[in-house]
Each structure stands twice: as structure tokens, then as C-alpha cells.
Design goal:
By secondary structure, the protein is of the alpha+beta class. 29% of the residues lie in helices and 24% in strands.
Length: 155
């Protein structure tokens, strides 16, 4: 007896990882490299996915260099892209004790709204421990129609 043959479409996950300096210039470079890499993977400049990814990377990288900076240590951007399914943005820093949270700010506060933006744009986001030291803030963007979003701040 032979088993039936089922053909499955292969799934290719594309990954890009780059370290950058823990400076505003490094955060800006992370955003630019992310959009460039997405374009190389077939996500055109100016598309909704590209623009959303640029905002997510910009916010997470800015938070990493502002709140997660350790002098002499770099931050890291990792993009994982499964065409038509998922885009994952990970920004890691070496300051594990400062864990971000999306908290509503007062109308006159000058900062603290960045993760609310991430929460609004991403399908889900989370803060993960980074081995051996630090943390990774992850934002995922579902690229195919599917179930409703995970509740805010969920993983």
C-alpha cells in the first residue's frame, strides 16, 4: 500500500540581521536598512507594508537607543519575512532591566507614546529576554487576512 502524495507549497522565511550603534544615527540607519531590505525581498517602497514596517523599526530602534543604551554596546535589528504571511521585527539591546510597557500618557507629556503606536500598528508585540544579556522587543505584522488581532501588549 502506498501513501497518498500531497504537494505543499514550500515556505521561505527570509531573515536579515544587522547590528547598529546605540545612537540616533544608528536608529535612523536601522529604519533605512529595513525598508531597503524589504524592497529587495519584493515589498516595494511606499507600500502599506513597507511604511508600517518603517514606523515599527523607527519606534523600536529609537526606544532601544534612548532607553536601552549601554555605552560601548550595539543594538541589533532582525527582520524575518514570510511572504504573504508574516513580517517580524525584532530590536534587541543589552539593557534587560528596563522593560518597556505601553502606557497612556497625559496630554502635556512630551514622550511615552511610541509603544502605543507600535500597539496600534502591529498585529501583536512582546518583550522577550535576550540570552545572554538584554531584551528583545518584537512586533509582528500579519500579512494575510486571518483571525482578529491579539489583545494589546499580548505576545
Amino acid at each position: 500500500m502506498t501513501s497518498p502524495v500531497t504537494r505543499e507549497v514550500p515556505v521561505t522565511v527570509r531573515v536579515f540581521a544587522q547590528r547598529f550603534s546605540s545612537t540616533p544615527r544608528g536608529a535612523r540607519l536601522a529604519r533605512r536598512l529595513a525598508v531597503l531590505q524589504l524592497d529587495r525581498w519584493g515589498v516595494p517602497y511606499g507600500s502599506e507594508t513597507s511604511e508600517t514596517a518603517a514606523l515599527l523599526v523607527a519606534e523600536l530602534a529609537a526606544n532601544a537607543v534612548t532607553h536601552g543604551r549601554v555605552p560601548g554596546r550595539d543594538c541589533e535589528l532582525t527582520l524575518s519575512y514570510t511572504p504573504g504571511l508574516l513580517l517580524r521585527v525584532d530590536v534587541s539591546d543589552t539593557r534587560g532591566e528596563r522593560r518597556p510597557a505601553a502606557v497612556a500618557q497625559g496630554p502635556f507629556d512630551e514622550g511615552g507614546r511610541g509603544l502605543l503606536l507600535v500597539e496600534a500598528l502591529a498585529s501583536r508585540w512582546a518583550v522577550l529576554d535576550r540570552v545572554p544579556v538584554g531584551k528583545t522587543v518584537r512586533a509582528e505584522l500579519d500579512l494575510s487576512p486571518g483571525p482578529a488581532r491579539t489583545p494589546p501588549g499580548g505576545s
